[in-house]
Q: What sequence folds into this?
């Protein structure tokens, strides 16, 4: 490393940064001014480097009435992504800005508890200390067993880029609303089911009580009632009341505006199906009554049970998991939607914006864009969906909320209230009580930590209350400029959480130490009424006070009771391996995994964050060369050889820019290429993103790889031009070969030249081993065909020669091509074998732009009125044809075979435009009687 | 290994070497069919196609279903399900003038011994007759008499309402293979080697009953009669399995001309091998006839022959028009002849006057190009022999349509929409003129633009 200090200095700042601590310092002349945030492993592209997570992720948190704010799950569910980012801490922060969380209970003037159909609140929140900015979407779900029947949740899109959150706010809001709607729909179903069961229970209880009273009455003829009897009567009365209340609740939940339910296409689950699941969820939600569970596993045979007069203590019951709350099916759908969101907003802001502009432009060419753009469909679908879910006007919004109502959620946050756990305590009192109580509790708890921390906590509390170091600024106020003199307070905050963090802190010279939460904006569409602001603003300070020890509370629970429960909750989610959850919320585990790099600081001086979650031995092996690779990329022979058979794994822009630090990016890439190697046998093309949401075949990676392979093909085969011409002119190209992987790879690469018939599927068949048929040529324009040895393959070859007039045949094994002659000028520009383009993604874009140009020519040709219709009755067809030819040649500047390409595209455009029902049937097979030629290397 | 790549454009070599099959390269400038549409609805061999009106046709086959198609768009309009076994005959049924509804009707006969009358506009099964003793193999409608006849092992006469009017006695176990109408209320039925002439007696004042009488049996054919067609007002023609073609007078049922073995080259051939080849009866069986004012076109074995009615001789022939038996031929208005064959191809021929007498009937240029000298030699041998009676015209191959993977059973020509072929590979292919279609699509596009009001938006 010392031997080549210049390389190191240029390529990998972190290493250099770390060196002085372990090894003799570098000579002064070699030192290069370093990127200030290099210790975080940030790349120079990132504006903010404080973030401890490698890329954006989605966090779902709950404000548990038992343990306070807690993270439930992250998407992607990968510890690598959020690294050492403190989820507990952040959960606390994001949960503490929910102004909307409404109280459901006995509102003044109402006899029964009332459910509010609360609108979700959407806020943007920043935490510069953590380097995290978040779009936070609060929602409440109903739970019969919860306090006030509500459980506040929030989904947060967490990014290190503030601008990204701000500029994508509308999109984020729209997407998260869908997810939220899905959750809430499922929740309403589950809640209604739960209520029904509860009603049955109550009914049964009433019957039992009634009988008992009767018996007592009969047994007791003395004319006066025993205290026992009176108690029973009271009990009966309370059950009666409870029944009425629950019936009322059921009515309320059922009266939820139905159009909303319909609105969310995402949640269109089958009702009867979900009913069953609801009952199942309900059964599992009573773990304390597990003895009864068997009795009512099947819904029709639900046996009502006796409800004891005394309700169980708050702590005794286990709260339902999110999945139980929302019905598994809806929960899974939500997860899919969330991972879709994660995919959607992956990448740097400029990348997102460019692609949005790109899409907007593509939408404008709605007539031609189906030809070569394959992701338009998904987008338009999304857009349609967006339209179909209108921004909800809030009928369920409470008309006016009193100050204390709004304060309640914040107060509830405090550990104090959690400790007291007395539901019946009057609200007003609780607020005051809570404040004191929690201070006490604070001290009590803090005693278990070292005194310095205690001091810090107190310090922070004070600061919080005077709003100096930490401030919550609501509604787009200026970012807090108050900076703490030292960052001790945060360090101390995180000490108990993760020793690793401390270490990184100590090593890094952080300059940004201000610790502030900024609520930068709220959603305008979900307009908060002014009272809400007023109401919530004063509470900000309270909130802050609570936050410090709540994070402590979080530690608390992790150590004790709730950790397994959390694990369970996570396991409920379909795609969450338990180990990951553990590390996501239990710090102990995480530091476990951190141990490896910690123990070898000399070898891996750079790993600070999420790096550690990849296999350590691999990492160390590849480490050096890899980081060099990242910057020097293609020039590195070692890398090329290591990834032979695959396109040099370039950084695709979204990936690169999205990630916050170099090391992680490169590692990410590395792990990708590693997975490539392992999946060499399988197709490189068919790798689909792991998310449940269909993101379509045209992922960035896919395009890049296709572009790279296409580039390779062009360089490798001198007859690439006629082959590409065949594809562009609609003549089916059959790629014949023995090796499936190679054929598939080439087919994928060449598919970027294939015009689509409709926007539903590319006419590409990657691999066929049976003889081809005439229908195949009508349907597919690019076919990968297996070459089978002599006797069995005779049929295949015979069919191929029989239908040779419809096909061009590329024989990979013999490096030969049989296809018509091409003498145009278009393809040479499209596929220049001497092109300077080296990257697959660049080439892909080049092809796209060329093809777009071509499309516009085809568009002009198709829609020029005078070219296709006779100007007057006497004009013959020959004159029209002549006009067409001269237009193609002179106006569009097409030569020879290029004309056929445009004509073919024009036919596709015509077909598509005139088609009434898009996507029905296959287009006709057009062909020319032209001689073919054999090209051979 | 690469052989197929080199010679991809022609038929497999083995076949090409065996017979001097005329082939055409990939460059077919005169072939107008540059667009095709594969129609898939049948599950078995499609044997029959019938035109319903100027844009619709019906197809039927061994799967027992009848499908009505739009010939312009290739859209499947209707599927008629009713028969349980393969369909043996399909005919359009002119709705009587008395009948109010102008719906297009078709009659289908099936191996399940039923005949069904369908309404092709609604897909309704109008009526079903299932009192047959045997499978009906041919159907004929006599419009003048408002009756239709069904031919199986016997011949039955039905009226428009599908009432049985009368029937003949059991004729033969093989049944009637073909039926045509001739003047004087007579019909000719081909039963095995025999031609039987029946006369229909319409009800008169004396007898209210219909009757059908056997008038005459013509026993001139040596073998089974495969084809029987009306040629013009004065004659009809029959062809048999052994290659006899007899032209009959339509009024007195006498033989006008008989061509037996005239296309059988065996007397002229000396090589043992070729005699053997031609003695295979299949090679000279006459499968189909078509005609125009001057000529009768016969599909004989693999070959095509043009017989001039005036000259009473073959004026053009193509001995190996296909690799396999020619199943159906049709004459187009523009002197073109289309043939389809068991080899799965459809070929388009043009009847041309020969410029010089010495012209070779089989062009060999193609083979020279590929260097198959031996084939060339063989091909030129019969040419010399035929010098003295060389036909004055020739059939030139101007294009072939390759699409089906099995024998092409039949085709149907639409003046406006192109050609429809049906095949044993369960498919129907619609062949179209690409340029014409392109123009039509443009027209449709601008019509739609106009409808949407987009056409003059910019102006």
A:
């Amino acid at each position: 490393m010392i031997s080549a200090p210049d390389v190191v200095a240029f390529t990998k700042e972190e290493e250099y940064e770390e060196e002085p601590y372990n090894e003799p310092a570098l000579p002064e002349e070699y030192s290069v001014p370093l990127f200030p945030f290099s210790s975080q492993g940030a790349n120079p592209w990132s504006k903010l480097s404080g973030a401890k997570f490698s890329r954006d992720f989605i966090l779902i948190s709950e404000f548990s009435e038992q343990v306070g704010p807690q993270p439930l799950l992250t998407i992607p569910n990968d510890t690598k992504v959020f690294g050492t980012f403190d989820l507990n801490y952040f959960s606390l922060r994001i949960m503490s800005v929910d102004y909307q969380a409404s109280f459901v209970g006995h509102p003044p003037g109402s006899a029964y508890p009332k459910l509010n159909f609360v609108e979700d609140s959407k806020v943007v929140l920043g935490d510069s200390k953590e380097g995290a900015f978040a779009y936070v979407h609060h929602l409440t779900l109903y739970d019969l067993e919860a306090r006030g029947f509500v459980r506040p949740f929030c989904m947060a899109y967490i990014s290190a880029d503030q601008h990204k959150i701000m500029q994508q706010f509308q999109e984020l809001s729209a997407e998260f609303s869908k997810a939220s709607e899905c959750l809430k729909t499922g929740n309403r179903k589950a809640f209604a089911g739960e209520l029904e069961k509860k009603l049955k229970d109550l009914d049964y209880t009433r019957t039992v009580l009634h009988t008992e009273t009767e018996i007592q009455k009969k047994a007791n003829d003395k004319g006066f009632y025993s205290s026992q009897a009176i108690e029973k009567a009271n009990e009966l009365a309370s059950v009666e009341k409870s029944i009425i209340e629950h019936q009322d609740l059921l009515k309320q939940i059922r009266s939820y505006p139905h159009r909303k339910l319909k609105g969310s296409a995402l949640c269109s689950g089958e009702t009867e199906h979900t009913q069953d699941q609801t009952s199942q969820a309900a059964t599992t939600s009573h773990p304390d009554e597990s003895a009864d569970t068997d009795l009512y596993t099947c819904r029709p045979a639900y046996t009502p049970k006796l409800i004891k007069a005394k309700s169980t203590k708050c702590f005794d019951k286990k709260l339902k998991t999110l999945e139980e709350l929302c019905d598994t099916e809806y929960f899974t759908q939500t997860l899919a939607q969330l991972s879709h969101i994660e995919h959607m907003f992956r990448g740097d802001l400029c990348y997102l914006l460019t692609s949005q502009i790109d899409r907007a432009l593509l939408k404008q060419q709605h007539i031609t864009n189906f030809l070569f753009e394959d992701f338009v469909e998904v987008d338009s679908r999304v857009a349609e969906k967006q339209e179909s879910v209108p921004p909800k006007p809030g009928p369920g919004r409470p008309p006016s909320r009193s100050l204390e109502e709004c304060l309640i959620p914040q107060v509830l946050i405090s550990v104090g209230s959690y400790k007291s756990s007395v539901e019946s305590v009057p609200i007003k009192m609780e607020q005051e009580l809570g404040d004191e109580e929690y201070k006490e509790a604070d001290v009590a708890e803090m005693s278990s930590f070292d005194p310095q921390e205690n001091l810090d906590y107190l310090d922070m509390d004070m600061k919080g209350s005077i709003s100096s170091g930490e401030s919550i600024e609501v509604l787009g106020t200026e970012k807090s400029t108050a900076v703490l003199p030292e960052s001790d307070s945060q360090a101390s905050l995180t000490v108990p959480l993760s020793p690793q963090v401390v270490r990184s802190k100590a090593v890094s010279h952080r300059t940004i130490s201000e610790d502030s939460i900024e609520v930068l904006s709220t959603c305008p569409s979900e307009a908060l009424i002014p009272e809400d602001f007023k109401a919530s603003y004063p509470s900000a300070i309270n909130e802050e006070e609570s936050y410090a020890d709540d994070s402590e509370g979080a530690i608390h629970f992790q150590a004790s009771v709730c950790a397994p429960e959390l694990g369970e909750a996570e396991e409920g989610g379909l795609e969450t391996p338990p180990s990951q959850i553990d590390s996501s919320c239990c710090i102990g585990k995480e530091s476990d995994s951190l141990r490896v790099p910690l123990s070898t600081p000399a070898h891996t001086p750079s790993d600070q964050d999420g790096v550690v979650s990849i296999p350590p031995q691999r990492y160390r092996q590849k480490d050096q060369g890899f980081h060099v690779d990242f910057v020097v990329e293609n020039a590195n022979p070692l890398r090329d050889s290591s990834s032979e058979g695959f396109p040099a794994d370039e950084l695709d822009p979204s990936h690169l820019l999205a990630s916050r630090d170099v090391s992680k990016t490169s590692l990410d890439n590395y792990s990708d290429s590693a997975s490539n190697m392992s999946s060499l046998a399988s197709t490189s093309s068919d790798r689909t993103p792991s998310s449940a949401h269909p993101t379509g075949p045209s992922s960035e990676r896919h395009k890049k790889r296709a572009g790279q392979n296409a580039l390779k093909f062009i360089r490798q085969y001198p007859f690439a031009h006629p082959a590409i011409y065949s594809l562009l002119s609609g003549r089916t190209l059959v790629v014949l070969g023995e090796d499936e992987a190679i054929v598939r790879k080439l087919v994928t690469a060449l598919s970027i030249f294939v015009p689509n018939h409709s926007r539903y599927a590319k006419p590409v068949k990657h691999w066929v081993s049976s003889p081809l048929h005439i229908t195949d040529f009508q349907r597919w324009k690019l076919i990968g065909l297996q070459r089978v040895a002599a006797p069995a393959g005779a049929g295949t070859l015979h069919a191929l020669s029989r239908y040779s007039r419809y096909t061009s045949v590329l024989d990979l094994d013999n490096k030969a091509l049989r296809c018509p002659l091409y003498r145009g000028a278009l393809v040479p520009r499209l596929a220049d074998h001497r092109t300077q383009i080296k990257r697959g993604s660049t080439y892909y874009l080049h092809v796209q732009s060329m093809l777009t140009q071509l499309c516009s020519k085809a568009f002009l040709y198709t829609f020029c009125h005078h070219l296709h219709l006779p100007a007057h009755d006497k004009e013959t067809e020959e004159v029209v044809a002549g006009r067409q030819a001269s237009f193609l040649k002179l106006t569009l500047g097409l030569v020879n075979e290029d004309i056929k390409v445009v004509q073919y595209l024009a036919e596709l455009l015509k077909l598509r435009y005139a088609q009434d029902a898009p996507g029905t049937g296959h287009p006709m097979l057009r062909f020319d009687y032209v001689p073919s030629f054999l090209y051979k290397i | 290994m690469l052989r197929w790549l080199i010679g991809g454009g022609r038929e497999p070599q083995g076949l090409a070497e065996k017979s001097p099959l005329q082939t055409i390269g990939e460059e077919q400038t005169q072939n107008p069919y540059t667009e095709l549409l594969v129609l898939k609805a049948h599950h078995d061999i499609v044997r029959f196609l019938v035109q319903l009106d100027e844009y619709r046709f019906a197809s039927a086959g061994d799967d027992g279903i009848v499908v009505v198609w739009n010939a312009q768009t290739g859209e499947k309009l209707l599927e008629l399900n009713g028969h349980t076994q393969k369909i043996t005959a399909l005919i359009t049924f002119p709705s009587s003038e008395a009948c109010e509804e102008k719906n297009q009707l078709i009659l289908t006969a099936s191996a399940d011994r039923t005949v069904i009358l369908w309404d092709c506009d609604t897909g309704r099964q109008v009526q079903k007759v299932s009192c047959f003793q045997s499978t009906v193999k041919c159907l004929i409608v006599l419009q003048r008499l408002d009756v239709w006849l069904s031919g199986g092992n016997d011949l039955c006469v039905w009226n428009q309402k599908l009432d049985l009017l009368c029937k003949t006695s059991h004729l033969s176990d093989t049944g009637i293979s073909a039926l045509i109408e001739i003047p004087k209320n007579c019909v000719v039925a081909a039963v095995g080697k025999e031609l039987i002439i029946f006369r229909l007696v319409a009800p008169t004042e004396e007898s209210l009953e219909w009757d059908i009488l056997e008038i005459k049996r013509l026993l001139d054919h040596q073998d089974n009669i495969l084809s029987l067609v009306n040629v013009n007002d004065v004659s009809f023609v029959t062809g048999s399995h052994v290659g006899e073609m007899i032209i009959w007078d339509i009024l007195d049922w006498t033989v006008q001309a008989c061509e037996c073995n005239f296309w059988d080259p065996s007397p002229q051939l000396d090589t043992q091998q070729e005699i053997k080849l031609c003695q295979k009866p299949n090679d000279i069986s006459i499968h189909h006839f078509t005609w125009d004012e001057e000529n009768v076109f016969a599909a004989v074995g693999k070959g095509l022959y043009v017989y001039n009615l005036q000259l009473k001789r073959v004026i053009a022939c193509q001995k190996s028009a296909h690799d396999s038996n020619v199943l159906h031929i049709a004459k187009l208005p523009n002197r073109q002849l289309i043939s389809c064959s068991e080899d799965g191809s459809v070929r388009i021929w043009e009847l041309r006057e020969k410029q010089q007498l010495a012209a070779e009937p089989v062009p060999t240029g193609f083979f020279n190009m590929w260097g198959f000298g031996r084939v060339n030699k063989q091909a030129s041998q019969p040419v010399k022999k035929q010098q003295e009676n060389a036909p004055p015209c020739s059939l030139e191959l101007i294009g072939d349509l390759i699409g089906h993977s099995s024998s092409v059973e039949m085709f149907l020509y639409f003046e406006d929409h192109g050609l429809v072929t049906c095949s044993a590979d369960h498919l129907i292919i619609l062949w179209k003129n690409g340029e014409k279609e392109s123009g039509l699509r443009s027209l449709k596009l601008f019509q739609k633009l106009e409808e949407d009001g987009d056409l003059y938006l910019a102006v």
